[in-house]
Amino acid sequence: MYLLTDEQTIEDLRIFGKRDSQGLFDLYNHSHTRGAEAVLKEMFTKPLSDQQEINRRSNIIQHFAGMDMRFPFEAALFDMAEKYLISADEQKKQGSQHAILSEREISNGVTSLISLVQQVKTFVETKAVAMIDGYSERGTIVSLLLDPAFEPVLREQQNAKLSYAAITAYDLLFRNRERGKIEQLLKQIYLLDVYLSVAKVARERNFVFPKALEKGKCTLRLKAVYHPELAKPVSNDFSMDTTRNVLFLTGANMAGKSTFLRAVSTAVYVAHIGFPVAAAEMEFSVLDGIYTTINLPDNLGIGASHFYAEVLRVKKVAAELQASKSLFIIFDEMFRGTNVKDAHEATVEITTAFAAKRNSMFIISSHIVEAGDQLNKIPSIGFQYLPTRMNGNIPEYTYTLEHGVTADRHGMIIIRNEGILDTLKNGKKIV
C-alpha cells in the first residue's frame, strides 16, 4: 500500500533536485551502489501507507543507526559485477552467440560475484545483524545462500586464483542457470545499502525516527520540527487531532509561513517512507494521501489563469476527500489569484467544508485575516500565526508559532525600505 500524492506535491516539497539545487532525495542519499540509488529513488516516489511496514522499516534503520555500521562491501565489486551481468542482457537483445565481454572482464565479474556472495554470508551471520527485529530481508538472504547452487561459491578460498575451467563453469552458473537468484541477492544488498545510507543521515544529523499510528485516527504530533535543508533553522512544536483537524495559519510576508508548511509536510511525507525526520519527536496516524499546494503555477497549456488553476486544485482535493480517504492537505495562500472579496468568501466556505472531514488534516495559510472571525465559530479549526516584531521601521521575524490570528501587514514598509518609490520618483534609490 502506497501513499497517494502527485507531481505538484513532489515539486512543492522539492523531493528531487534540479540542475541548480539539491532535493530531499540527495540529502538522504549516501548510497555506495547505483542499484541502491535506484531503490532509494523508488522509495521517495512511493511512500508507504501501511502502519506495520512503515514501523518495520523505521525500526531496521534505527537499529543500524545505533550500531554505527558501515557498508561492508567494496563499491568496485559492484561495478564489475553489474557490468558483467548487464552484458548478458545486451547479448540476448542482439541475438549474438559471441561474448561481448573480454576474458578478463568475465573473470573480474565472476570473482566479484564470488566475493559478494561470501561477504554477504559473513554479514548476515553477524550476531548484531541477526538480532535486528523485523529485518526479514536477512531471512531472504539466508534462504538464497542455502540454495545448493551457491555451495561451490561458498567453498571457494578467498582471493584464490580460479582456473579457466572454473571461471567458465561459474560464468554459466551466474549469467544463465542461476541469474535470477544472483539478481535477487544483489537486490537485497542494494536494500541494505539504502538502510545503512539513511542510518548514517539519521546519526550525523540527529534526526528522529517517527512512530506510525493506526490509520484514520487523525493524529499528528511534532516536537521541534524544522526544514532539513535550512542552515540555521528555527524549530516549532505542532500538533493536530480529530478535535482540531484544521489549522488556519496567518502571518505577514516573509514571516515564514511557506517554510513552516514545507517543514511539516516534508516530515509527514518522509515519515511515510519509514525514514527519520528533522524533529525532536514525531508520531502520526498513517494517511492515505498527501497533497500540497504551495507553488501552484499557471497552466498556460490550457490557457488557465492562476485562479482557475487554484480552483482545479481544490476540485481535485475535494474528489479525493469524497472517496472517504484520510488525507493531509496544505494550501498556501488559498485563492491568491482572485480579488479580496471572492478570496475571502471562498476561503471561508472551503475551509469550513474541510473542517467537517474529521478523518483528514488540513493547514490553510492566508493573508485574509478577516476570515478568522467567521472560522472562529467552528471548534475543529485552530488558529496560529507567525509574528513580526517592528524594530523602528525594520520588521524582524521570530519564525516561532503563536496562538491566534495576526493582522500584521508590512508589505508597504518593506517596499519603502527598499527605496522603490524613491527610485521611481527620483531615478535612484535614496539610502
Features:
single chain, DNA_mismatch_repair_MutS_sf, MutS, six-stranded mixed sheet, 17 helices, alpha/beta, DNA-binding, 431 residues, ATP-dependent DNA damage sensor activity, MutS, DNA mismatch repair protein, Chain A, domain 3, Rossmann fold, four-stranded mixed sheet, elongated
Provide a concise account of the structure shown:
This is MutS-like protein. With 431 residues, the protein is an alpha/beta fold.
Class from helix and strand fractions: alpha/beta
The N- to C-terminal Cα distance equals 59 Å
Q: How would a crystallographer describe the biggest sheet?
A: 6 strands, mixed
What's the CATH topology label of the largest domain?
A: Rossmann fold
Anisotropy-based shape: elongated
CATH superfamily of the largest domain: P-loop containing nucleotide triphosphate hydrolases
Kindly report the average pLDDT value: 89
Strand content: 5-15%
Spatial ordering of strands, largest sheet: 6-7-8-4-9-12
Structure write-up:
With 431 residues, this protein is α/β, with parallel strands linked by helices. Helices cover 48% and strands 13% of the residues. The strands form 3 sheets. The protein has a 6-stranded mixed beta sheet, sandwiched between helices. The longest helix is centred in the middle third of the chain and has 27 residues. The mean pLDDT is 89.
